[in-house]
Design a protein that fits this description.
mainly alpha, 2 domains, two-stranded antiparallel sheet, 7 helices, 2 strands, 68% helix, flat
Amino acid sequence: MGLNYYGLRATNATYTVNFLNLIPVVIFIIAIILRLEKLRLNTRPGMMKIGTIICVGGTMVISLYKGKLLHLWPTHLLTPAQLRAIGCESAGSPNHHNILIGTLFLCGSCLSYAFWFIIQAKVSKEFPSKYFSTMLACLLGTIQAVVLRIAVDRDPSAWALHRDLQLLTIVYADES
Protein backbone atom coordinates (compact mmCIF):
# COMPACT_ATOMS: atom_id res chain seq x y z
CA MET A 1 0.00 0.00 0.00
CA GLY A 2 2.92 2.31 0.69
CA LEU A 3 4.20 1.90 -2.86
CA ASN A 4 0.73 2.79 -4.09
CA TYR A 5 0.68 6.00 -2.03
CA TYR A 6 4.13 7.04 -3.24
CA GLY A 7 3.05 6.31 -6.81
CA LEU A 8 -0.04 8.45 -6.29
CA ARG A 9 2.10 11.28 -4.98
CA ALA A 10 4.24 11.25 -8.14
CA THR A 11 1.44 10.69 -10.70
CA ASN A 12 -2.29 11.36 -10.54
CA ALA A 13 -5.38 9.58 -9.21
CA THR A 14 -6.63 8.28 -12.58
CA TYR A 15 -3.29 6.73 -13.39
CA THR A 16 -3.03 5.17 -9.92
CA VAL A 17 -6.51 3.64 -10.01
CA ASN A 18 -5.65 1.95 -13.30
CA PHE A 19 -2.86 0.06 -11.59
CA LEU A 20 -5.24 -1.04 -8.83
CA ASN A 21 -7.59 -2.35 -11.52
CA LEU A 22 -4.72 -4.38 -12.99
CA ILE A 23 -4.15 -6.43 -9.82
CA PRO A 24 -6.64 -9.24 -10.64
CA VAL A 25 -5.22 -9.59 -14.14
CA VAL A 26 -1.64 -9.70 -12.82
CA ILE A 27 -2.69 -12.31 -10.23
CA PHE A 28 -4.19 -14.41 -13.01
CA ILE A 29 -1.11 -14.12 -15.23
CA ILE A 30 1.26 -14.97 -12.36
CA ALA A 31 -0.94 -17.91 -11.37
CA ILE A 32 -0.76 -19.25 -14.94
CA ILE A 33 3.03 -18.78 -15.06
CA LEU A 34 3.45 -20.55 -11.71
CA ARG A 35 1.03 -23.27 -12.84
CA LEU A 36 -1.40 -22.56 -10.02
CA GLU A 37 -4.21 -21.95 -12.51
CA LYS A 38 -5.09 -23.66 -15.76
CA LEU A 39 -6.33 -21.58 -18.68
CA ARG A 40 -8.41 -24.14 -20.65
CA LEU A 41 -9.64 -21.92 -23.48
CA ASN A 42 -12.19 -24.48 -24.69
CA THR A 43 -14.28 -24.20 -21.49
CA ARG A 44 -16.71 -21.46 -20.52
CA PRO A 45 -14.66 -20.30 -17.46
CA GLY A 46 -11.52 -20.13 -19.65
CA MET A 47 -13.29 -17.94 -22.21
CA MET A 48 -14.62 -15.72 -19.40
CA LYS A 49 -11.08 -15.24 -18.06
CA ILE A 50 -9.83 -14.13 -21.48
CA GLY A 51 -12.88 -11.85 -21.81
CA THR A 52 -12.08 -10.30 -18.46
CA ILE A 53 -8.50 -9.59 -19.53
CA ILE A 54 -9.79 -7.98 -22.75
CA CYS A 55 -12.28 -5.84 -20.81
CA VAL A 56 -9.67 -4.65 -18.33
CA GLY A 57 -7.32 -3.86 -21.21
CA GLY A 58 -10.05 -1.86 -22.93
CA THR A 59 -10.75 0.02 -19.74
CA MET A 60 -7.07 0.87 -19.42
CA VAL A 61 -6.91 2.16 -23.00
CA ILE A 62 -9.99 4.33 -22.55
CA SER A 63 -8.89 5.80 -19.22
CA LEU A 64 -5.31 6.52 -20.33
CA TYR A 65 -6.24 7.86 -23.77
CA LYS A 66 -5.28 11.51 -24.13
CA GLY A 67 -7.65 12.85 -26.74
CA LYS A 68 -9.08 16.29 -27.36
CA LEU A 69 -10.79 17.94 -24.42
CA LEU A 70 -14.38 19.00 -24.95
CA HIS A 71 -15.23 22.30 -23.29
CA LEU A 72 -19.03 22.44 -23.44
CA TRP A 73 -19.25 25.25 -20.85
CA PRO A 74 -16.76 27.47 -19.04
CA THR A 75 -14.62 25.46 -16.63
CA HIS A 76 -12.45 28.22 -15.16
CA LEU A 77 -13.83 27.98 -11.64
CA LEU A 78 -10.58 28.56 -9.74
CA THR A 79 -8.35 31.61 -9.97
CA PRO A 80 -4.65 31.11 -10.82
CA ALA A 81 -3.73 31.83 -7.17
CA GLN A 82 -6.12 29.12 -5.98
CA LEU A 83 -4.68 26.66 -8.51
CA ARG A 84 -1.14 27.35 -7.27
CA ALA A 85 -2.32 26.89 -3.67
CA ILE A 86 -3.58 23.37 -4.38
CA GLY A 87 -0.45 22.42 -6.34
CA CYS A 88 -1.49 23.13 -9.93
CA GLU A 89 0.68 25.27 -12.19
CA SER A 90 -2.10 25.88 -14.67
CA ALA A 91 -5.64 24.67 -15.19
CA GLY A 92 -5.67 20.95 -15.82
CA SER A 93 -1.97 20.30 -15.20
CA PRO A 94 -1.28 19.11 -11.66
CA ASN A 95 2.22 19.44 -10.30
CA HIS A 96 3.21 15.78 -10.54
CA HIS A 97 6.92 15.97 -11.03
CA ASN A 98 8.18 12.48 -11.79
CA ILE A 99 5.85 10.13 -13.61
CA LEU A 100 8.60 7.55 -14.24
CA ILE A 101 9.32 7.04 -10.54
CA GLY A 102 5.58 7.03 -9.84
CA THR A 103 5.02 4.37 -12.48
CA LEU A 104 7.77 2.21 -10.98
CA PHE A 105 6.19 2.56 -7.54
CA LEU A 106 2.78 1.63 -8.97
CA CYS A 107 4.19 -1.39 -10.83
CA GLY A 108 5.86 -2.51 -7.60
CA SER A 109 2.58 -2.05 -5.75
CA CYS A 110 0.66 -4.07 -8.34
CA LEU A 111 3.19 -6.92 -8.27
CA SER A 112 3.36 -6.86 -4.46
CA TYR A 113 -0.41 -7.11 -4.16
CA ALA A 114 -0.53 -9.93 -6.69
CA PHE A 115 2.15 -11.98 -4.99
CA TRP A 116 0.64 -11.22 -1.57
CA PHE A 117 -2.76 -12.59 -2.56
CA ILE A 118 -1.21 -15.70 -4.10
CA ILE A 119 0.97 -16.33 -1.03
CA GLN A 120 -1.94 -15.62 1.32
CA ALA A 121 -4.10 -18.20 -0.43
CA LYS A 122 -1.35 -20.83 -0.20
CA VAL A 123 -0.55 -20.05 3.45
CA SER A 124 -4.18 -20.19 4.53
CA LYS A 125 -4.44 -23.72 3.12
CA GLU A 126 -1.23 -25.00 4.71
CA PHE A 127 -0.68 -23.06 7.94
CA PRO A 128 -3.04 -24.06 10.76
CA SER A 129 -2.72 -20.96 12.98
CA LYS A 130 -4.42 -18.08 11.20
CA TYR A 131 -3.85 -15.57 14.03
CA PHE A 132 -0.13 -16.27 14.17
CA SER A 133 0.19 -15.95 10.39
CA THR A 134 -1.71 -12.64 10.57
CA MET A 135 0.66 -11.40 13.29
CA LEU A 136 3.68 -12.39 11.18
CA ALA A 137 2.21 -10.63 8.15
CA CYS A 138 1.68 -7.45 10.17
CA LEU A 139 5.21 -7.61 11.57
CA LEU A 140 6.76 -8.09 8.13
CA GLY A 141 4.55 -5.34 6.71
CA THR A 142 5.76 -2.97 9.42
CA ILE A 143 9.38 -3.80 8.65
CA GLN A 144 8.79 -3.25 4.93
CA ALA A 145 7.05 0.07 5.58
CA VAL A 146 9.96 1.29 7.72
CA VAL A 147 12.51 0.28 5.08
CA LEU A 148 10.47 1.93 2.31
CA ARG A 149 10.02 5.10 4.34
CA ILE A 150 13.76 5.33 5.06
CA ALA A 151 14.54 4.75 1.38
CA VAL A 152 12.11 7.40 0.16
CA ASP A 153 12.41 10.12 2.81
CA ARG A 154 15.53 10.35 4.97
CA ASP A 155 14.37 13.41 6.92
CA PRO A 156 14.02 12.46 10.63
CA SER A 157 11.37 15.14 11.19
CA ALA A 158 9.04 13.18 8.89
CA TRP A 159 8.75 10.54 11.64
CA ALA A 160 7.39 12.98 14.21
CA LEU A 161 3.70 12.74 15.04
CA HIS A 162 1.80 15.99 15.51
CA ARG A 163 -1.65 16.57 16.94
CA ASP A 164 -3.34 17.18 13.64
CA LEU A 165 -5.05 15.31 10.83
CA GLN A 166 -2.08 12.93 10.41
CA LEU A 167 -2.48 11.55 13.94
CA LEU A 168 -6.24 11.27 13.51
CA THR A 169 -5.69 9.39 10.24
CA ILE A 170 -3.34 6.92 11.93
CA VAL A 171 -5.79 6.30 14.78
CA TYR A 172 -8.68 5.89 12.35
CA ALA A 173 -6.69 3.50 10.13
CA ASP A 174 -5.79 1.35 13.17
CA GLU A 175 -9.43 1.13 14.24
CA SER A 176 -10.74 -0.01 10.88
